[in-house]
Amino acid sequence: MHDMQGGEDLLFLTDEQLRQGIEAMFFAYRGFTADPDRILEGMAYGRAHHRAIHFIARAPGTNVNNLLAILGVTKQSLNRVLRTLVDDHLVESRVGTSDKRERHLFLTEEGAVLERLLSDAQRARLRAAFRTVGPEAVSGFRKVLEAMMDADMRRKYFDIRDSSL
Amino acid sequence: MHDMQGGEDLLFLTDEQLRQGIEAMFFAYRGFTADPDRILEGMAYGRAHHRAIHFIARAPGTNVNNLLAILGVTKQSLNRVLRTLVDDHLVESRVGTSDKRERHLFLTEEGAVLERLLSDAQRARLRAAFRTVGPEAVSGFRKVLEAMMDADMRRKYFDIRDSSL
DNA sequence: TTGGAATGTCAACAAAGCTGACGTATTATG
DNA sequence: CATAATACGTCAGCTTTGTTGACATTCCAA
């Protein structure tokens, strides 16, 4: 009994291949967060602080509502994180100019230092991985991740992406 | 002033590209867990239960220590999850045959039903993404994820992968 | 027979999510 | 102008999932 189909084109969608994809995501995400986690343990901060710092660095002057939408948490949860960062002078919260109800968020010098420390570690891992596999594979990696996002998250991802070109 | 280098080969490692990779991982992981999370909310289970169920389904008869190593949590944390699953008759814990200190873990019929429900949902999302981008991109996706793992996790990933062929 | 391994369990705690309720500016709107 | 809606902050309490530390049991192996 020989193969009826083209092989590669159909076989890559078997349940087994999909399960391997699932496990790859699981293990890779652990590696992805491992270095920043290590840096933050001991400090009074965690992964939630890292995420906030990352997106404030990425979109300086963003307001709380926007950050809320990107992070996908409640304002109470974000506020707890943001409060410690503001108290510790890593983040500055400025009253809005056009709309004074809004707060615009910026990293302080000190905040930018921590941000760089964290993102250097995370980028180093990604850079090593990217270098190992080559640009072709990286392109595929990005395509799959983008296709995997929820539609509204994909919109936000491209928003941030396109606003920093 | 014209380009001195090949472009693609060096540009794909700019900090901007790496940051986009980081954000792609963040948003994609959210999508990756969204469907199982939705299914589990309302039941008394969470993501931790899903992970345990997944790897027990994947390696039936695995012992606690092995599961501990794969999941990367403490035995106390795993035990809490495992206990509820055993109490609810989703997981069976059999005393080891060769080494009676060990417990071998299996899904019950009922457990297998839930496992299928969860993994069908998760696989459906991955399948859709994979179909959208094509086998070439999927291959790149897998390569990058594997390169991103910690060395010991990569070993475990391949162990599981190769044991179910 | 004795030390170490595998497992289970108790207690206490922390990080980070959640809901609900409420207060206070500020802006928008009828 | 009065009122509604928005943006933000905060209090209280709860859940999930992780952590340490301590201790008991069972069993394998030297």
Structure description:
- The structure is a homodimer of 165-residue chains.
- In chain A, strands 1-3-2 form a three-stranded antiparallel β-sheet.
- In chain A, a hairpin with a 7-residue loop joins β2 (91-95) and β3.
- Chain A has helices spanning 8-11, 15-40, 47-58, 64-71, 75-87, 109-133, 135-148, 151-163, and strands at 62-63, 91-95, 103-107.
- The longest helix of chain A has 26 residues, at 15-40.
- Chain A is 70% helix and 7% strand.
- Chain A has a domain at 21-133: Orthogonal Bundle (Arc Repressor Mutant, subunit A), CATH 1.10.10.10.
- Chain A has 165 residues and is mainly alpha-helical.
- The model of chain A is unreliable at 1-7 (pLDDT under 50).
- At the A-B interface, α2, α3, α6, α7 and α8 of A face α2, α3, α6, α7 and α8 of B.
Judging from the principal axes of the Cα atoms, what is the shape of chain A?
globular
Largest interface: A-B, 62 and 62 residues
Oligomer: homodimer
User: Could you say what the CATH topology of the domain at 21-133 in chain A is called?
Assistant: Arc Repressor Mutant, subunit A
Largest beta-sheet details of chain A: 3 strands, antiparallel
CATH homolog superfamily of the domain at 21-133 in chain A: Winged helix-like DNA-binding domain superfamily/Winged helix DNA-binding domain
Q: Do you know the CATH architecture of the domain at 21-133 in chain A?
A: Orthogonal Bundle
Sequence of secondary-structure elements of chain A: HHHEHHEEHHH
Strand content of chain A: 5-15%
How many separate helices of chain A?
A: 8
